Amino acid sequence: MLYHSCWIFSLESYKLQIYAIEGMTMVKATDLHTNRGLRADLPTSYATYVDRWAIVVGVSKYQDGSINLKYADRDAEALYELLKTPSGGGFEEEHICKLVNEEATTANITRALRSFLKKPGKDDIVLLYFACHGAPDIDRPKILYLLTHDTDPKDIAGTALPMREINLSLKENLLAERVIIIADTCHSAGINKSGTRDAGDNSGEINRYTLSGNRLYVLK
Known about the structure:
alpha/beta, Rossmann fold, four-stranded antiparallel beta sheet, 5 helices, 20% helix
C-alpha cells in the first residue's frame, strides 16, 4: 500500500503513527510502557490534498506551583517542532496554535477552540493535543476538567476548562470530519505528588466527553 504521507510522533509515553492515503486515514498508537497498540481507520472519500491544523497545549508551570508537572511543556514543544517538519506532516506554522505554560490559560484555550477551529475546511485534518492535569469537580465528580495554567485547584469548576467545552466547540465550530485528540492527562487524585501524568486513569471519562459519531477519535 502506498501512503501519501506518514507522520510518526514519539513522545514521552507513546508513539503515534498517522498514515494518509487516498480515501482513508489510518491511525496507530503504541503505549511505550506496555507496548500495547491501538488502531483506528477513518474511512470515506476525501480529497488527496488537505490542509493540516493543530492546537497544541502543554502545562507544566501552574500559577499554583504546588501542582506543577515535569514534562508536559517539553512534550508540547517537541510535538510543535515535529509537526512543522516534512516527516511530521509539514504543518504550516500559522496552522498551529501552540499554548504552553503561561499562555495556556482558560481564556486562551477557549478562544482557540471557538475561533481557531473555525478555520479548517471539511476535508482537512485536525490534531488536538493536551498535556496537563485533568480532574473532576470535587462536588460534581462526573464533570471532568482540564486544568489550565490559571486554574485554582480550590475552585476547579470556576476556573478550569470543562471537557464538554471541547466537545461543544467541535460540534459547533469545526467543519473538519477527521479529528485526532491526544489527551495526555492525569485524573482525580490525579493531581499527584510525583509531578507526572497518568493517562490511564481518565480514559473512560475523557471518551465520554469527546466521542461524537464518527468524527472524533481519542487516543491514549
